[in-house]
Every structure is written in structure tokens, then in C-alpha cells.
Amino acid sequence: MSADVPPRVQARATELGFDPLVARIRHPNGGVYAAIYAGYLLFAVGLVLAGVAGLVTGNSRLDDPGFWLVSAPILVLSAAAAVWLYRGMVGSVTRRAFYLYPQGYLYVAPSGRVARESRWDGVAMIEGMEGVALQVQVAGRRTVFVIKHFSGRSIRFTERHGREVLGPMAYELRQAAAAASRDSGTVL
Fold first, then answer.
1. pLDDT tens digit string along 103-125?
2. Which residues have a Cβ under 8 Å from the Cβ of 21 and sit 6 or more positions away?
């Protein structure tokens, strides 16, 4: 097992017969997802602080048991939500990744669980590589990639123009799998 592959990702790859690992590539938009989680976290914390301040400065008294009967569950749920949002924020940068194999890929969510898996024969096409690449201008030029599956949802991501890694590597692995499939007599 590679040091880069967490145990539950390695277990799923083994179940699917994916081996050897070609590359682990962090999701190119992980920072954006982390910023979104951080925004939700700040909003939630601000909302809770405003609510608690309203309870404290309202007609409630801190020595009133009814105040704590209402406030304690709110504070506990808020703390749990903050921890969940914080883990999502950190996981978007550290755990959200693509694991590429000659047979297919695994996509790992911020929680560290395998959120999507696909064999290359289940991928219809990789837009951004086949035909004209779509360019967008958002803080620098970025190339939009879409991994389209024959069934199921597509995966979209962008990479800096001129520094694309994930899109081209996934495309090459899919093309190699298609060539191997043609050579063995099956159609991809």
C-alpha cells in the first residue's frame, strides 16, 4: 500500500481491482470549496452568537433554568455544526482528491470517504480534452474539464490554463484503457 493512499481508499481500490496507483491529485478546486465551507462557518458562528446575545440581553435571566434548557441544546448543536464545517473546510484541502489508476479513478470527498468511482469504460468522454477546450476568465485563465459518464453525474473542475494536470492525465489513462480494450477485442 502506498503511503499516499488512506486505508479506506486502498480497500475500495482493492475491491474494484484497481492497481497500481498512477497518481493522487488533489482536487484542483479544493481551495474554493474550503472558502465556501469557511463562509458557511463564519455565517453559522455569527448567527449563533447573535442568537445567544439576544437570549442573554432579552428578558431571560442567566439563573433561570428555562434559559439553559433552551440555550444548552442550541449551543451543543452549534458546536457540532461548527466542527462539521471546520472538518469540511480542512478536508477540502487535505483529503478531497482524485486517485487515478490504469483501470479507472476514485474521487474522495472532504470526509475522506470514496464519493465516486468509475472504470474508464464507464467514462463516455472527458470534455476539455476532446475537441475545443472551454476557457474561462476567473482570476486568470482556467480550462474547464468535465468527466462525463455513460450513467450517473458528471464531475466538473477547472485547472489553470497551461498548468493542467488532472484533465490530461485522466484523458491519457482513459485512452490507454480504450486501446488495451480494443487490442483484447472488447469495445470501450
1. 999 999 998 899 999 999 999 98
2. 2, 4, 5, 13, 99, 100, 101
Rounded to whole angstroms, the Cα distance separating 16 from 80 reads 34
* Mean pLDDT within 87-112: 89
- Please report the DSSP string for 52-71 in residue order: HHHHHHTT--TT-HHHHHHH
153: three-class secondary structure by DSSP = coil
Q: Indicate if the alpha-carbon torsion angle 179, 9, 81, 37 is positive or negative.
A: negative
pLDDT tier at 138 (50, 70, 90 boundaries)? Answer: low
- Which grid cell is 104? 479507472
Contact 188, 104 (CB under 8 A): no
pTM attached to this predicted model: 0.76
